[in-house]
Design goal:
Layout: E1 13-19, H1 30-47, E2 50-56, E3 60-66, H2 72-91, E4 103-107, H3 110-121, H4 123-126, H5 141-144, H6 158-164, H7 169-181, H8 199-209, H9 215-220, H10 223-234, H11 241-248, H12 252-259
Antiparallel strand pairs: 1-3, 1-4, 2-3
Helix pairs in contact: 1-2, 6-7, 8-11
Length: 262
Amino acid sequence: MPRLARVKSYSGYYHIIMRGINRQELFKDDQDYRKFLRFLKRCKDIVEIEVLGWCLMNNHVHMLIKEGNEDISITIKRIGISYVWYHHVKYNCVGHLFQDRFHSETVEDDQYLLTVTRYIHQNPVKAKLVDRPSDWQWSSCLGYYGKEVYPASLLAPHLIYEVVHPGDQEKALQMFKAFNEAENEDHCLDCIDKKRYTNEEVKEIIYELFPEIGHKEFEALPRCMQKKILQKISTIKGITQKQTAAVFGLSQGYISKLKKYK
């Protein structure tokens, strides 16, 4: 099956994830972390990307980037190839280091821009590696708090400050810090391998949960009951709305309207 084309961002902003193949370690020591960031900085200088955030974890990387003067896919490939070459020479190894294509999502509005920034910074906290975002050395968090980050001039915090409180960087920094450390249930692109079901598996799961319901019977149910059934199905990770619609012989439009039914 051919790969789907990567979704193009209208704003130019992307949340990027690169991860080690089979959860392989990407970074073994401080030099490795620094080297990756130097390659990111080199790309910034060459293709004029803006880097709004990053978090380097043991086996994956989060970045928030505004596209520069080339397609984002080419930019990320530049970074990946450079780091793989360095890694393989240092550790005398061969083969793939990163898993398949990088993952990305577009960031099209100011609120989600802030949300993704916080999500990236809180990665080590939610992984229970540190207590606070600023405790993790290999993220852009300290740069937003007015501290030095490596390498110098990599981060472009002014783009976030202008969203938080235009024209007043000191006030923006205070407001951003409170936002960045707030407890939340942010859901952004992550690097967890999610279960994907085939249409036949979805049908079996649904009819096991609701053995008395076929698609004709479903259509005959009151809308309030239809909505409860769909809500139950929506809690099962890996089942898409399209698959649910196909099992019940409904359109996705009908399901979308049903979700809004009160």
